[in-house]
């Protein structure tokens, strides 16, 4: 399964964030019960009949905490993707300035990271 979609679960007095993490952490169990020819799906009965530990006292707190962590991970992934794109752009821009000329490897190392490296010790 390359993409996961979740339908609505109504009439359950459990925070959505908690349900999200319970299902996410039990995805292998859900996949085992999936059926269908065009789209694999799990029936409502299968989901509703799963045995889950639900600590009622701390439910909201646990769900909120896990949701915050998940959100931060998603933001960090977006930041990393953006930094990778910036690095690629800077690299492409610096390489384009060479105009197909042959250069010494120390010049390329400067272009890549802003530092000069001695490839061979001077004689």
UniProtKB/TrEMBL annotation:
Similarity comment: family membership: Belongs to the type-I restriction system S methylase family.
Record-level GO BP terms: DNA restriction-modification system
Record lineage: Bacteria, Bacillati, Mycoplasmatota, Mycoplasmoidales, Metamycoplasmataceae
Organism domain of life: Bacteria
Keyword Cytoplasm in record: no
Residue span, Type I restriction modification DNA specificity domain: 14-85
InterPro entries associated with the record: Restrct_endonuc_typeI_TRD, Restrct_endonuc_typeI_TRD_sf
The protein, known as: Type I restriction modification DNA specificity domain protein
GO MF, one example: DNA binding
Keyword line: DNA-binding, Restriction system
Entry keyword annotation includes DNA-binding: yes
Pfam families for the chain: Methylase_S (PF01420)
Gene3D superfamilies recorded: DNA methylase specificity domains
């Amino acid at each position: 399964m390359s993409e996961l979609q979740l339908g609505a679960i109504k009439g359950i007095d459990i925070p959505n964030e908690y349900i999200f993490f319970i299902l996410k952490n039990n995805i292998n169990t859900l996949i085992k019960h999936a059926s269908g020819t065009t789209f694999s799906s799990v029936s409502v009965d299968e989901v509703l009949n799963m045995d889950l530990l639900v600590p009622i006292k701390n439910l909201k707190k646990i769900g909120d905490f896990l949701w915050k962590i998940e959100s931060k991970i998603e933001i960090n992934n977006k930041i990393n993707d953006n930094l990778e794109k910036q690095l690629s752009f800077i690299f492409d821009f610096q390489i384009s300035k060479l105009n197909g000329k042959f250069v010494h490897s120390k010049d390329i190392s400067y272009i890549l990271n802003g530092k000069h490296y001695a490839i061979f010790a001077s004689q």
